[in-house]
Amino acid sequence: MFTKTFLKHAVQLGICSTVLLMLSVGSVSARDNEIKFELTDNPGRWFDTGTSVAGNRSIAIATPGVRVKFSGNSNTVHTRTSLIFPTGAANMPFNTEPRKGGDDVILTTPGLYVFTCSIHPYMFGAVIVDDPKTSGLDLGTSISLINGITVPTSSDLATRLLRTFFIATNPANWQNYASNQPWHITYPDVDVRVDIGVVNLPAVLNARYGNDIPLVALENPKTSAVGEIWVATQFENTQSKEKPGTISAIDGSSWQVTRKVALPSIEMNNPHNMWTDKDQTVIYATQWFDSKLTVFDRLTGALIRNVSVGESPAHVMTLTDSDRLHVTNNGDTRTDSVMELAPLADGVLRRVDIGRGNPHAHWMSHDGKTMVTPNVFSGDSTQYNFHTNAIEAIVPVGSPFGHPIATGMMPDATKYYAANFLDSTLAVVNMDTHTVTKHINLIENYDPVAGTITGPVGALPIQTPVSPDGKNMVTANTLTGTITIVNTITDELVAMLPCDPGCHGVQYGAKQGGGYYAYVSSKFSNRLLIVDPDPNNDGDPSDAKIAGTVGLFSASTTQHDDTVSANPGMGGQGILPIPLVYNGWVQNLPASWSSQLTAAQLNPIK
């Protein structure tokens, strides 16, 4: 193993190796002690130093006093936010407003700093500020998260976060089910100084989490699904586009990928979330790293229109009573940050004032009356009434930096849930009293220092919809790579299932013959997981199971409007099962779809 003294002499002598190059990445100028990150729309290298070592362009090493500069080369706005920093570090926490321009910060305290975008929280850039007088690269004695959580640098939580960084920022480290090779994660082979002394970084990470892990074979569910499942394969690159992103369609009877829509004519950029109209004829897709809502024909994939709606549009849903669309502008700090559009997105009608900016994954009620939004920057949630065109309540649901990111609502609109990303909690909100009745702690069964897990665990939750019949809720948890199941009758966490790295999107669709599947996607994998939340149909979700898995990469029969060139099937985020079977929407289906559903699926809460 190289010592720090050897590395310094080696650099002076011009000795070149992957390890030595690792220490010089990040546009570091010895004369100016400066690091430059360019924020981009490109998968893996969202914080781009311009130098690639072992596939990673998002990490830099510097000495105390380094100036870190952030510039923008993205189609939308981003924050520069210190997600992780040495506890008590000067100039921390660091957090900017969303913008496209530049920012800078000086780092003087030795240790590990990880920056992110609060709008797109898997964008990562890291700086290790190293004290040249100590052995090993300094990670610090303890790290703090921006929401106040503090743990030793040798803790399981610290190393899980570090492992997540190396997976997210190197596409070669993503789980590739199109290959028959074991899953290998490449870490820089360096010694690091943590609270317990100097340790070898890959040795610790490999010992704790394994490596060269065989990937299990894909296995289709035994029972078919009704209709189709559309998945935003957000990181898939195609030949005719500079910007990433496709939307992939899966046939629920054959479980084959039948179509990939890239829309090269408009440079569709990072498609994130989807919905459809009452007749299930079009797909609405938000471009999260842009400012557009895209509409295309579900049967042909042909572009219908591309509508400007605002910065970083995240999620889109329709009202059940009018088919009007509502899009959350995740990058918009204005309080009127939800856009209302005419049916089929045929023009913007108005901006809806929710009293807050930066909403993400909203949900609508079955009767077209109510919308709830998670307001990412303010730790609260808005309940808005469309019948009175007024805010009913703004409810604190998490800590100030808890990052509420998604909501799910009971089908009778009596309560809703807000997933607090950084707090790792689910807030249960009574919709009549506008009060939080409970926080479901998803990491209650997890020791963040020792790493011991004694029950269901879900760290960093994202999408969390409630089943159409209101009996369970499936949540995708990105840090732990787990799927958690809540019994929505008791609001208890009752089960945990394995997921892939970057576990992200969830939606429910109809299962042939009755019941539902919950489809789960992951950002850093090209596999879709199909969860049966109630296999014996007894209303108790504690026996939920993985019913099958499907690859999101192209098959020989897949239809394309552009040739896939990189990251096949990767970046799974938003999911749209067709037909929509949630209460309020399912009753509006045309006969061609409703005839394929059971009586219970057509009236899910009766």
TrEMBL record:
<protein>
    <submittedName>
        <fullName>Copper oxidase</fullName>
    </submittedName>
</protein>
<dbReference type="InterPro" id="IPR051200">
    <property type="entry name" value="Host-pathogen_enzymatic-act"/>
</dbReference>
<keyword id="KW-0732">Signal</keyword>
<dbReference type="InterPro" id="IPR015943">
    <property type="entry name" value="WD40/YVTN_repeat-like_dom_sf"/>
</dbReference>
<dbReference type="InterPro" id="IPR011048">
    <property type="entry name" value="Haem_d1_sf"/>
</dbReference>
<feature type="signal peptide">
    <location>
        <begin position="1"/>
        <end position="30"/>
    </location>
</feature>
<dbReference type="InterPro" id="IPR008972">
    <property type="entry name" value="Cupredoxin"/>
</dbReference>
<dbReference type="InterPro" id="IPR011045">
    <property type="entry name" value="N2O_reductase_N"/>
</dbReference>
